[in-house]
Amino acid sequence: MPATDQKDMALGNENLEQVPMGNHVSQMHPERRREIEKRLKRKLDLRCSYFVLIYIMNYLDRNNIAAARLGGLQEDLNIDNTQYATCLSICRFLP
Cβ distance 39 to 54 under 8 Å? Predict the structure, then answer.
């Protein structure tokens, strides 16, 4: 028994049509299509939430390093302006 059939049986979907990979989505059984769309939306939502989290953390990091410079970061680490600019460019371009 193919893996997709076993998965469908495990999900209680043994009565659904099995559409070969090359066929169009419109030929798929409506329940199966809803299930696939639901899984796809869940995957997209999860991945998009990572992007939002990375954006927020990057924003906070950019603001914190500017505030740290005003608070004496350069003097504490004994770095010159070029080294600080290098640090800034790394923080700006790496998420």
Answer: no
22-63 pLDDT per residue, tens: 557 678 888 988 999 999 999 999 989 888 888 888 788 778
84 is written with which tokens?
């600080």
Rounded (10°) angle between helices 81-93 and 30-70: 170
Task: Please enumerate in sequence order all residues whose Cβ is within 8 A of that of 92, keeping only pairs 6 or more positions apart, or say none.
Answer: 62
DSSP SS3 for 80: coil
Q: How much is the pTM?
A: 0.45
Measured CA to CA in angstroms, residue 83 lies from 38, 51, 77, 87, 88 at distances of 49, 29, 10, 6, 9
Kindly state the tokens that stand for 2: 């193919």
H/E run at residue 62: helix 30-70
Domain ranges of the chain: 27-93
